[in-house]
Design a protein that fits this description.
The protein is built from 20 helices and 26 strands. The longest helix has 21 residues, at 140-160. The chain has a 9-stranded mixed β-sheet with strand order 6-4-1-10-11-12-18-19-20, with helices on both faces. A 6-stranded parallel β-sheet has the order 21-24-23-22-25-26, sandwiched between helices. Strands 3-2-8-9 form a 4-stranded mixed β-sheet. α2 (63-72) runs parallel beside α3 (87-99), α2 (63-72) crosses α9 (371-384) and α9 (371-384) runs antiparallel to α10 (389-401). With 609 residues, it is α/β, with parallel strands linked by helices.
Length: 609
């Protein structure tokens, strides 16, 4: 028992060590839409259930969900991806904001946001509708804007991390977000990133990237091997032998056959129909596909690849993957290859050549959507924090496993991971609203725990969406957020005799209710300088589009060793504008009715929440 407890503490130390780790995620971002329905009868027109929609939720998917998982696990996540100027894009932006991801996506008018819509009844997925096509290519201007966003986000993360090189995660799911010029740029700029993780449907597209880690599914790994030139076996390889054609047929899928040794009977050697066939069974299809094992346990079929395991009793996907880890590393140029096996766990191999097997608990398919994103996020953060490969593999599998308890897109939070390790999830609980006399002790406790402090201040008179987004972004800059709010007298001196609209007790209570705010303190002065000296924040945040040099408190913060950041406001969201609208409605009641005309996109977003 003591040894197990010590191991859990060691793993928890790694989780703590990656807090605030800067990670840039680039690739195919999409929206996951879940529609939950009831059904108690069949329709008269066809043998199909009649569904009554009860609930609809939206979540970030693809590269966006990887970014959400990085942020939830405690990393500093920045997402660069093309997103359509449509309702799905608006919902995706909201998902990123709520998760504390730095949203640096690039607007692409005329190119829809990819969406995966699932209809469920009784938590059983009845159908899935996908929108978004790889033929919706980025135009040259879109490619230029994406490259600019990548370069700027890289430098932004480097600056926020005090000059430390950020980590890069590439999520290429074949939906057109990473055309050849973008791939070439990332390969060329490889030295700007300390750790690089690659998750790609077609790994052959990324030759030259030299990633730290690749996380292919079994189907993606076998596809790469089937398309690779040559059949050289790794030194000291297993008794398994895999053969594949010299080239891909233009009109059919790649094929790979597993046998006991060279010279074994293959499917294409059988011509008289009398010998048992040992070749591929069934025909794989192109597009997105899951690996499936046939009922007789003899064939594994994936996207564009069929693997036959009849020769060699007891051969399974894990054994096949283990036998080819060295070759997968050679073909990808990666230090680490982690072949994921859906509910069967994963097989991981590194520079030492020793395969490592991890296991998972089988769950319904509707519970496992996005579990691979959680695996990728945890594996990347652990390797970026210089954790040994066995530790990184263990934490990645744990992150994927604990997210699959319910239907929906999987997200693993840092607190969930620490709870699974039987470790405390934070500092002793405290009331969010605190006095200035308590602040010193609170900050000292955080410092002792090695946690970074973000500090901001303001009136926050009429709390609105702009405030919430600003505070969520501020919280993402560190481990906790302290908000200093002006007293009523201070607001009157700054804003005029008719302000504040809401007393400080209400303003403070609303701020304290936000999940992104850790502590709220009220100050009487017109300037927060005294509080800044007491808190000595690692990051001081102000709202506005001006450079940090123009922030009055900047010299003080820097003298105390902190950074100054300015975050832009949400357009058309301000307290003054809201108050003015309220006043205009009270003077002209008829305008209220006209202003209440439903906005279809807003209605859709409201339903999604």
């Amino acid at each position: 028992m003591a040894g197990a407890a010590a191991e859990q503490r060691r793993l928890a130390t790694v989780v703590e060590s990656w807090l605030g780790r800067p990670v840039l995620i680039v690739g195919d971002a999409m929206l996951d839409e879940w529609r939950f329905a009831d059904s108690d009868r069949l329709c008269r027109e066809a043998p199909a259930p009649v569904l009554t929609l009860r609930r609809r939720i939206s979540a970030a998917g693809g590269a966006a969900n990887t970014a959400v998982n990085v942020a939830a696990l405690g990393g500093r996540a920045v997402l660069v991806a093309p997103v359509g100027a449509d309702v799905a894009g608006d919902e995706l932006h909201d998902c990123l904001d709520r998760a504390g991801v730095w949203d640096r996506t690039v607007n692409q008018p005329g190119r829809p946001t990819p969406v995966k819509r699932r209809m469920l009844a009784g938590n059983q997925i009845l159908l899935r509708e996908d929108s978004g096509d790889p033929d919706d290519a980025l135009d040259p201007e879109g490619v230029d804007r994406l490259l600019t966003a990548l370069s700027c986000a890289t430098e932004e993360l480097r600056a926020a991390a005090g000059g430390e090189a950020p980590t890069l995660v590439v999520c290429d799911y074949g939906l057109g977000a990473l055309p050849a010029p973008v791939r070439a740029w990332l390969v060329e700029q490889r030295e700007r990133y300390a750790t690089v993780a690659l998750d790609a449907h077609d790994l052959a597209d990324w030759r030259g990237l030299a990633p730290t880690v690749v996380t292919p599914s079994f189907a993606e790994a076998t596809r790469l091997l089937a398309r690779a030139n040559g059949t050289t076996r790794p030194a000291g390889g297993s008794d398994l032998h895999l053969e594949h054609p010299d080239h891909d047929p233009a009109d059919g899928p790649s094929e790979m056959t597993a046998g006991a040794a060279p010279g074994a009977v293959r499917a294409d050697d059988v011509t008289d129909g009398t010998t048992d066939r040992r070749g591929p069974v069934g025909e794989p299809v192109r597009g997105e596909g899951r690996v499936a094992l046939t009922g007789d346990g003899l064939s594994v079929t994936g996207t564009g690849v069929t693997v036959n395991t009849q020769a060699g009793e007891g051969v399974d996907r894990a054994v096949l993957a283990e036998s080819r880890l060295a070759e997968l590393r050679a073909h990808t140029g990666a230090d680490v290859v982690a072949v994921t096996l859906d509910t069967e766990g994963a097989v991981v191999g590194g520079l030492d050549g020793a395969p490592r097997r991890s296991h998972s608990t089988p769950v319904p398919a509707s519970h496992a959507v996005g579990a691979g994103d959680a695996y990728l996020a945890a594996m990347t953060l652990a390797l970026a924090a210089d954790a040994p490969l066995p530790t990184a593999a263990q934490l990645a599998q744990l992150a994927a496993t604990i997210t699959v308890s319910d239907t929906g897109t999987c997200v693993c939070r840092r607190e969930d991971l620490l709870t699974a390790l039987d470790q405390p999830t934070g500092i002793t609980d405290r009331t969010a609203l605190v006095g200035t006399d308590e602040l010193d002790a609170i900050v000292a406790e955080y410092r002792e725990a090695g946690r970074s402090v973000v500090f901001t201040n303001g009136c926050f008179d009429v709390l609105h969406r702009g405030h919430v987004r600003y505070l969520e972004q501020a919280r993402a800059l560190g481990d906790l957020l302290i908000v200093a709010v002006n007293s009523d007298g201070s607001v009157r001196r700054l804003k005029g005799p008719d302000r504040p609209v809401n007393p400080v007790e209400d303003r403070g209570a609303l701020l304290a209710a936000l999940a992104c705010v850790d502590h709220v303190v009220v100050f009487e002065e017109d300037s927060p300088a005294a509080l800044i000296e007491a808190v000595r924040p690692d990051v001081y945040v102000k709202g506005g589009d001006y450079p940090p040099e123009l922030v009055p408190e900047a010299p003080l913060v820097r003298r105390l060793g902190g950074q100054v950041r300015t975050l832009g406001y949400v357009p058309d969201r301000s307290t003054s504008a809201i108050i003015e609208r309220i006043r205009s409605h009270s003077q002209d009641p008829s305008s209220y009715a006209s202003d209440r005309t439903p906005d279809e996109s807003l209605s859709t977003r409201t339903q999604a929440s």
